[in-house]
Amino acid sequence: MLMSRYETSNHLTPPRVANGRVADSASGDRFIASRSATDFDYAHHLLTETQRKTGDGESSCSPSKLAYRKIMAENLTGRSGDGNTRILHYTGKAPANSHGFQSHVRAVYTRVHSPMAKKTNRVIPHVPERVLDAPEVVDDFYLNILDWGVSNHLAVALGGAVYVWNASSGSTSQLPIPESEYSDTVASLAWDQNGQYLAVGKGNKHVELWNVEKMKRLRVMKSQNARVQCLAWNSHILASGSSSGSIHQHDVRIPDHHIATLNGHSQGVCGLKWSPNGKYLASGGNDNVVQIWKYDSTRQQEPHLTINQHLAAVKGLSWCPWQPSLLATGGGTADRHIRLININSGQCIKEVDTKSQISGLLWSDVHRELISSHGSPRNQLTIWKYPSLNRVCELEGHTGRTLAMSMSPDGDRVVSIGADETIRIWNCFEGAAVAAKKKAKKSIADTFTLKRNLIR
User: Fold this and answer.
1) In contact, 302 and 295? CB cutoff 8 Å
2) Peptide bond into 128 cis (omega under 30)
3) Topology (CATH level 3) of domain 134-308
């Protein structure tokens, strides 16, 4: 049987016919309501719209509510009530700025940021990477018994013996010093700039030169009249400072090695450092004085600059690698201050109280930081940010005061020796070796480019 055109799937009865016209199917059956076909939201809208047009809605409101509606309408559409004068109008353009007006807000929010990655704080291990034994170490603040050479060999003086640790292979060897000389304490050590020769300052007033690869003593230089407490190389010139306060300069190439004597300290010299360009020698003494000596062909024997700002012995000395005229100095127990000195003006440009004795200072070229080694009360190593000298972190582990400190040739690590008879290696400047390799490659590339341009 065929379906009628009025039959649907929801079985509605035929619609009502009025005045010859079929009623709208949306209104449903005239006897049974169809909820599925009814739009209640639309029905509610029709009811409320009818009330609004007839005025029923307004008549039901209180006079105060009607007054509120009128005020709101005037504020939104204008006094005339014209809908075209709305305050919030989206179709029109913004009015033009007055002559010479500049929007600072627009400049801020339209700034183009560079694609440079954000700097992240590196993680500095607070425990040593390696701990080595140092039995019979001499607990003397004024000695310099540790040095790490460019050949990656670490030299350590323990009593009258000298040990050399190969950081690459981990092997250890001992200089063949006769046992009869063990009573003469080794007071200072210094590798030459090529890492081939080791200078050894002795308690018997002598300075010895050793070829470590061949394990052979090359010569003994006798000129000092007291214990040699510190040594510093400048190419073929070796400076030695003694407990008497005198500084001798030795030319190791010639038989008559003693070429100059620098007398500027009234007490023992415990710190010696040449500037990176080799033009200046800084010396620190137990007389609380720092002397700056200018090296030239005339062998000038008068100090270029005298610094009297410390209140204790000055052992910690370190030249800034990227600013040749800047020297960092550190005082002993009664002073405890790190000072940054401009040797051109003689002024202290920054200082900080470390609260403990300072036995050594070193710069990190890559991270632009300064590290200091300390004695009582915490025997720690502290890293400082340049130029603010804000404390970055502290490395603790020594149970006795630190006596000396040195940096690895790649700049990544720092080694410290303490009165607790331990040597601790800290990986506190990681990344310096990678940066140094990039810098070396860039230097080679620049040199190659220069030569190629010259050939053309």
Assistant:
1) no
2) no
3) Methylamine Dehydrogenase; Chain H (2.130.10)
